[in-house]
Amino acid sequence: MTDKKVRLGIIGLGAEGGMYAGLIADGKVPNVEIGAICDILTEKKARADELGVPFYEDYVEMIESGNVDAIVTCVPHYLHPEMGIAALQQDVHALLEKPVGVYTKQAREVIDYAATKPELTFGVFFNQRTNPLYVDLRELIASGELGALRHSSWIITNWWRPQGYYDQSDWRATWGGEGGGVLVNQAPHQLDLWQWLCGVPQSCFAKLAFGFRRDIAVEDEVNAIVDFGDGATGNFMTATHDLVGTDRLEILFDKGKVVVDNSKTVTITRLKDAEQELSKGMSMEDVRKMFMGQADTSELYTTEVKEYTSVWGLQHATVMENFAANVLDGTPLIAPGPDGINGVRLANAMHLSAWTGEEVDMVNFDEERYLTELNARIAAEGKFPTRS
């Protein structure tokens, strides 16, 4: 360890950037200090003055100033890759907010460039990877104790957003300004965690509703089926129009099952043997007793329930602290930048499947076809330039 601190340049002092500045200023990230703040809104300079740090309107000028060792991007999604590349070009480390890009071709550009600068740190802000619940769950799955994956489903519909949320700015919930709806704005953390836990899917088929219950062009409801390979499947459902909302993750294995409710309560069922072996050894009388509630289930499985609590802001502070530790002493990254393309690809595949009505190959994902379809929708909006 070292007493040295990483001077972080915050690009975009909105809700996220403001929170990060507050966490650092309050000493919640011991190995980071604010090097400078950049925002296109000049009124944000007042906050920079309060913190006693330089203020810039141009992020390139900030990167080239010598006042920052690293940057974090708290700006609209399309800008993440180009800002990351600009930083890396000047030998400045880059921590990109999720998603790492809107489409895989764009995400790959910053990932490929970062690979040419292996001495620099390139991370993505997946703060949920620091959540003890998911850290413990990943370790359990990796141990092999529960056997092979069979199926997983995640219903994550507690992203309710009123129409006023979408009406706040012209770029929000547009193809050209934001690049999508719930998949690129609210659900990227779950898309990342799902693959972090279960593996990267090989294909996807999806039905999406665009402007289903909101006056927007992009998706506000998603139903997708994925193929994880080796017979394992999964489904993912998310929406922004469910006022009550549900957050329930289920993962079924050969030797057990995990259920996560509201990202707080984890129920782990461990079978005494693989399910198929238990099936072979059961008589129909055994089955009758089980269905009638007369069987001693302790002979079949055990159940453990674990409760987790969350401290607001702690996960974000942990990501920044880990990122800085990698810069300072090579501590392994919790969320390496290249991991960011997995969630982008899955979101892109869901879009493309819904647009074409086809199952989408994710192993050999057609980036150009996706970009062509995306640009057709950007052009139809007539508000923003198409992408390359």
Automatic annotation (TrEMBL):
Q: Which residues form the signal peptide?
A: none
| GO molecular function (one) | nucleotide binding
List, alphabetically, the InterPro entries matched: Gfo/Idh/MocA-like_OxRdtase_N, Gfo/Idh/MocA_Oxidoreductase, GFO_IDH_MocA-like_dom, NAD(P)-bd_dom_sf
Q: Write the record's keywords in alphabetical order, separated by commas.
A: NAD
Q: Which Pfam families match?
A: GFO_IDH_MocA, GFO_IDH_MocA_C3
Q: Residue ranges of the Gfo/Idh/MocA-like oxidoreductase N-terminal domain?
A: 7-119
Q: Where is the GFO/IDH/MocA-like oxidoreductase domain?
A: 135-258
Name the UniProt record assigns to this protein: Predicted dehydrogenase
Its source organism is Paramicrobacterium humi
